Amino acid sequence: MPKSARTERDPEGRMPLGDHLRELRNRLTKGVLAIVVVTIVSAFFYKDIIDFITAPLLRSVGCHQSFGELSKASKDTHCAHITIGDLLGPFTLALKASLTAGVVLASPVWLYQLWAFVAPGLHRHEKKYAYAFVGFGVPLFLSGGFLAYHVLPITAKVMIDLTPSGVENLLSLDKLLDLVTRMVVVFGLAFEMPLLLVMLNLTGILSGKRMLGWWRAMVVGIAAFAAVATPGADPMSMLALAAPIWALFFIAVAFSLINDRRRARRADDGLSDDEASELDLTPEAVGEVESVSASSAPELPGKDHVNGYDDVT
């Protein structure tokens, strides 16, 4: 088979199932390879990575300001000693920190591979929505992670201050790293919810009026989610998560209402690109049909025609 025939692809991205599976395997291999390479490089800097992730929390509650650095905490204030539970704890901690950094820092590569696998099968307007989702989704996720990174120390300080006198707090560094990572991911994903509602509205699945009718349930639901997601029982950390999501939800509702109004105006003016015109099936009377001109009449049989045919047969 010629090389050009092997490399030629359908313009709409269609291919046999076997080619889809091979394409998926190649994309996954490239994405996993990028994560492995970045993880190996990050292993040489795992202490700096742990220090960066846990530094704000340790400055707030730890008797050590950062990883391996002694603080000058007052004896009158409560603090927590950071510990590692077992012999394999340091190795597990280094592996976990390196793998987390590998997944995060290699995200441009594996996200591109995912997009390259999905994009050929999308229509033009679907690609436009996907670009918008990525363009707004990444900043929203980073904003949620940034908020969690700064709210968690405040929550931890409130919890540590509840410690009775004469009791010493021992915090496992492994669990502390898990807590910070989980909070960053939860806050980041929570900030994606309004964007998902907007995308559903742009695709015509959900209207802004229906979203507005959900506002009471959404306010209560977001508050309940924030209360469960935040580790502390103080209302400040709960409001720190719930208030931005409330604001983003109402922004999404306002955008959807404006988009619905714009779509209605466009429908009144004429057909959109995705709509088909209605067929006029009203029957017409025979008399209303224009008479056929003499020039367009069928040719009469001539001398070479017998009974209307070209020859006797």
UniProtKB/TrEMBL annotation:
<keyword id="KW-1133">Transmembrane helix</keyword>
<dbReference type="GO" id="GO:0043953">
    <property type="term" value="P:protein transport by the Tat complex"/>
</dbReference>
<feature type="transmembrane region" description="Helical">
    <location>
        <begin position="179"/>
        <end position="202"/>
    </location>
</feature>
<dbReference type="GO" id="GO:0065002">
    <property type="term" value="P:intracellular protein transmembrane transport"/>
</dbReference>
<keyword id="KW-0813">Transport</keyword>
<keyword id="KW-0812">Transmembrane</keyword>
<feature type="transmembrane region" description="Helical">
    <location>
        <begin position="239"/>
        <end position="258"/>
    </location>
</feature>
<feature type="transmembrane region" description="Helical">
    <location>
        <begin position="97"/>
        <end position="118"/>
    </location>
</feature>
<dbReference type="GO" id="GO:0033281">
    <property type="term" value="C:TAT protein transport complex"/>
</dbReference>
<keyword id="KW-1003">Cell membrane</keyword>
<dbReference type="InterPro" id="IPR002033">
    <property type="entry name" value="TatC"/>
</dbReference>
<keyword id="KW-0653">Protein transport</keyword>
<feature type="transmembrane region" description="Helical">
    <location>
        <begin position="214"/>
        <end position="233"/>
    </location>
</feature>
<protein>
    <recommendedName>
        <fullName>Sec-independent protein translocase protein TatC</fullName>
    </recommendedName>
</protein>
<dbReference type="GO" id="GO:0009977">
    <property type="term" value="F:proton motive force dependent protein transmembrane transporter activity"/>
</dbReference>
<feature type="compositionally biased region" description="Basic and acidic residues">
    <location>
        <begin position="301"/>
        <end position="313"/>
    </location>
</feature>
<feature type="region of interest" description="Disordered">
    <location>
        <begin position="269"/>
        <end position="313"/>
    </location>
</feature>
<feature type="compositionally biased region" description="Low complexity">
    <location>
        <begin position="283"/>
        <end position="300"/>
    </location>
</feature>
<dbReference type="Pfam" id="PF00902">
    <property type="entry name" value="TatC"/>
</dbReference>
<keyword id="KW-0472">Membrane</keyword>
<comment type="similarity">
    <text>Belongs to the TatC family.</text>
</comment>
<feature type="transmembrane region" description="Helical">
    <location>
        <begin position="28"/>
        <end position="46"/>
    </location>
</feature>
<comment type="subunit">
    <text>The Tat system comprises two distinct complexes: a TatABC complex, containing multiple copies of TatA, TatB and TatC subunits, and a separate TatA complex, containing only TatA subunits. Substrates initially bind to the TatABC complex, which probably triggers association of the separate TatA complex to form the active translocon.</text>
</comment>
<feature type="transmembrane region" description="Helical">
    <location>
        <begin position="130"/>
        <end position="152"/>
    </location>
</feature>
<comment type="function">
    <text>Part of the twin-arginine translocation (Tat) system that transports large folded proteins containing a characteristic twin-arginine motif in their signal peptide across membranes. Together with TatB, TatC is part of a receptor directly interacting with Tat signal peptides.</text>
</comment>
<keyword id="KW-0811">Translocation</keyword>
